[in-house]
Design goal:
With 387 residues, the protein is an alpha/beta fold. The chain has helices spanning 5-10, 61-73, 92-100, 115-144, 153-158, 181-199, 221-238, 259-274, 290-295, 300-321, 325-334, 339-346, 350-364, 371-385, and strands at residues 3-4, 18-21, 29-30, 32-35, 49-53, 78-82, 105-108, 167-175, 203-208, 211-217, 244-249, 282-284. The strands form three sheets. It has a five-stranded mixed β-sheet. A five-stranded mixed β-sheet has the order 9-10-8-11-12. The protein has a two-stranded antiparallel ribbon with strand order 1-3. Strand 5, helix 2 and strand 6 (78-82) form a beta-alpha-beta unit. The relative contact order is 0.08. This is PucR family transcriptional regulator.
């Protein structure tokens, strides 16, 4: 968990730090506060730390400049220098560097002990992490155990998430990771969290394997669309290398008690995307057409039974005979019964398509020229897409 540097300092007015340079970097994320006197130990920094130093190990202006450059290179969030003891002035070269590189530089007044700065800042970071973990766990419980309201309503109410508000789930999936998947999911989760904090008043974000789950409170479908598109733009800017992002947005619920439905819808959208049934990088449940009706079937056994009844014989025939009648028939239906277009798409002769469609009709016991039968089969294929 991290906070923007500005947000962290605004929440700790007793932590006396005077900003000298690098104000454009106050949006940097901060994960912790460290005291670091020597750059020899900078290899132990993980990035995004606010560094405090007395300057006791610095021999002069050149050392100070080298120290600041090293912290910047190690992706520190900023640096605070104790003035009046070992550092009696800060060279213009240092402030200029910090301004040019948006690297926040602070002065610690002479009479202020480090403990009075580090303690409240670290406590705020811990409190924020604890709060986010509790909210995330509560929403996980709301999604996994909707009937056990005691597992999520008290915690969410404590943090002012109203039970009867409308919520939606947004699931973001990353593919082709440019780095360690855990690190990339963590970094992207923070990027999404930062955006949502600015965009909506109440939200929660947590990472899962290859995915990020966000729960947002919106008052209308139009607002949800704006938020969803903002998430897409934000994540696309943060992609690295050959990474790609896919986003599914569930329907707005009527209360927090049915957030699991929105989550299930968002998951189904990602499944359809992965199978090439949806082309856009972000898809909203309200735009799914006939898939909306199928996803609204509460009992999955009904969908599975229909799918097996309609397409089961053809799937079994393909399995036993090593044929592809199921795929050919799907292409035929997708091309509105055009043998020519189906043949062109599959790179085969039209006679081959005619033979296989006739064989599929025989196996299924259906007249494939009838609209009623074609509709039943398309419904079966759409259910197969969702499984």
């Amino acid at each position: 968990m991290a906070l923007e540097l500005r947000e962290l300092l605004d929440g700790c007015p007793d932590a006396r730090l005077d900003l000298l340079a690098g104000s454009d970097g106050l949006t940097h994320r901060v994960t912790w506060v460290h005291v670091l006197e020597s750059t020899m130990l900078s290899d132990y920094l993980g990035g995004d730390e606010l560094i405090l130093t007395t300057g006791v190990a610095l021999g002069g202006d050149d050392d100070l400049m080298s120290y600041v450059r090293t912290l910047y290179a190690r992706d520190a969030a900023g640096v605070a220098l104790d003035t009046g003891h070992y550092i009696d002035h800060i060279p213009e070269e240092v402030t200029t560097f910090c301004d040019e590189h948006a690297f926040p530089l602070f002065a610690i007044p002479k009479d202020v002990p480090f403990e009075s700065i580090a303690r409240p800042l670290c406590r705020r970071l811990i409190d924020e992490e604890t709060k986010d973990r509790m909210i995330g766990n509560a929403f996980r419980n709301a999604i996994s155990y909707p009937d056990r309201q005691e597992l999520y309503i008290p915690a969410l109410s404590e943090f002012h998430f109203e039970i009867e508000w409308r919520y939606a789930v947004i699931i973001i999936r990353l593919d082709d990771f440019a780095d360690d998947p855990y690190k990339r999911i963590d970094a992207m989760s923070e990027t999404v969290r930062k955006y949502l904090r600015r965009r909506v008043r109440f939200s929660a974000t947590y990472g899962e394997w290859e995915r990020i789950v966000a729960v947002v409170h919106c008052t209308s479908p139009e607002e949800l669309r704006d938020v969803g598109r903002g998430v897409l733009e934000t994540t696309q800017r943060a992609l690295r290398g050959k990474e790609t992002v896919s986003i599914g947005v569930g329907k707005l619920t009527q209360s927090i008690r049915c957030i699991c439905k929105s989550h299930r819808q968002a998951e189904s959208i990602l499944k359809l995307q992965s199978r090439g049934k949806l082309d856009d990088r972000i898809n909203f449940f309200d735009d799914l057409g006939a898939y909306r009706v199928l996803l609204g079937v509460e009992d999955p056994e009904i969908s599975q039974e229909y799918y097996r009844q309609v397409l089961g014989p053809l799937l079994e025939y393909d399995k036993e005979n090593g044929t592809d009648l199921t795929d050919v028939l799907r292409g035929y239906l997708d091309h509105n019964g055009s043998v020519r277009d189906t043949a062109a798409d599959l790179f085969v002769h039209r006679n081959t398509v005619n033979y296989k469609i006739a064989k599929a009709g025989d196996v299924l016991g259906m007249d494939l020229s009838r609209l009623k039968n074609r509709m039943q089969l398309m419904l079966g294929y759409m259910l197969m897409d969702m499984m």
